[in-house]
Amino acid sequence: MSINLRTVYAFAREMYPKINAEHIQYGTAGFRGKAEFLDSVMFRMGVLATLRSRYREGAVIGVMITASHNPEPDNGVKLIDPKGEMLEPSWETIATDLVNVTDQDLEQMVATIIKDNKIDINSSSYVYVGMDNRYHSPRLLKAVADGVIALKGNVREYGIVTTPMMHYFVVAANTKEAYGKPTEEGYYEKLITAFEKIRNGQLETGNYRNNLIFDGANGVGARKMLQFIKRMSNSLNVNVINQGIGSGKINDECGADHVKVKQRPPISMPDLEPYSRCVSVDGDADRIVYFFNNDSGQFRLLDGDRIATLIAGYLMELIKSCNINLRLGLVQTAYANGASTDYIVNKLKVPVSCVATGVKHLHHKALEYDVGVYFEANGHGTVVFSDHAKLIIKESAQINQNAKTLLLIIDLINETVGDAISDMLLVEVILSHKGWDVKDWISTYEDLPNQQLKIKVQDRNVIETTDAERVCVRPKGLQDEINKVVSNYKCGRAFVRPSGTEDVVRVYAEASTEDDTLQLAYEIGLLVQRMAGGVGPELTKP
Ligand code: G16
């Protein structure tokens, strides 16, 4: 095979010229922005994925085209490493450099990456590409595929799939199918088989009822949930709303981010009995939150912290009952509700760590445990089991029924990354084993009221943080001002950080009462506007 790097330049110049000079960065979850500016980014990411595959000796690299929780006009791209993990940080820097060079400098930049990383350009490379159901995704997918073709790599297109499905396909292929078949059917089969075996025909126990409302955020999650339902033997009654048919836009007034941040239900909710179990997933179905209305019609949220504590508590009981010794730990971010951390440390007695936002950070930390449960409060998370843990559980399963269940649970979990549907099936298993409804679940602890704001500033990167984003080190003096304000509130806690997926600064606040929380968030928001170059509209006084 003879590869001419000139082809990369020719493709770029003729088909995917760089039309936006603004510097963009590989952020929390890859590149995100307005879809009309992303063609050149996608082409270059196709090129990079091909190089990465060659660098990793022909292992499959995944490329997912999605802007996940962002509004419909946005799109984005994230790369998936051979073990299903997010792209290695040193290559994030390479990715940022590659998308920011001019078309004229592209050929030279590619040559430098090849030289610096000692890549055998004539070796094989395999890139799997998938996309969400945004109307501009097919165009952007073609750009990625052309990037692969420009360097004579092999590309396999999966069409419209969820982000966690892409992670699954990559791992399935790279483990030579030990993880499952790298096909859509293989994915459904793995999860449904595990779920139905654990269910074992027992559909309703104690307070647990077998019905669920599923808000698909008008995204790919809705489509895939419908595919699950078709293949399941009535083991769960799911009513899918916001299916993406008609005028509904992705994540618009619906989906996990809307429900979590605005703390209210999505549009198109049917009339329901109080305490009916509902879930919302985001635009690419890697996040999930639960919610319900109580008998006074009050909206109640069961977010990622609740899911994490439910799963960690259940796994701990199961492990204990098998008489095996495994180190279980939980990983959260600064967004975790203070009450959840309290509950984990003091009631569950599980070690907990706090890391920076982004599943890549949580996943990495969770790998330090035999059983690592990680969730962001926004509902993004999963569980990872070490090889050692899997071996011990397998041995125990020869004599212990609970260890057999644990093995099936491992199969049900998409360990590669947060997977809304897999997480949901796991929560359903746990609730039904406990005979719990949402009332039982929410009564485990009382959340502190909390509030998030998005503040527009001239340049969000003027904000720099440390200590898992809990302390702001720049602009100078901002943290001192935050501390002063926070000290006026009982159980007050607040932090600010630049988003890695949207052009905003995020403000998080919690305090002992609803009114205090709103006031605290407002005051911190004002500080950001004043000290970090706010450009947005005036904040509304609570
Ligand atoms: C992505 C990341 C998440 C992160 C979220 C918000 O989610 O995968 O880990 O919590 O962005 O990040 P930020 O606050 O930096 O904007 P998604 O669902 O949009 O891919």
Summarize the structure.
The chain is α/β, with parallel strands linked by helices and 542 residues long. The chain has helices spanning 6-15, 39-55, 89-100, 103-116, 137-150, 163-174, 184-199, 220-231, 256-262, 304-321, 338-348, 359-366, 387-397, 401-412, 420-434, 438-442, 478-486, 514-531, and strands spanning 31-34, 60-65, 74-80, 126-131, 154-160, 211-215, 237-241, 278-281, 288-293, 299-302, 328-332, 352-354, 371-375, 381-385, 450-455, 464-466, 471-474, 493-498, 505-510. The strands form five sheets. The protein has a five-stranded mixed beta sheet with strand order 1-3-2-4-5, sandwiched between helices. A five-stranded mixed beta sheet has the order 7-6-8-9-10, with helices on both faces. The protein has a four-stranded mixed beta sheet with strand order 12-11-13-14, with helices on both faces.
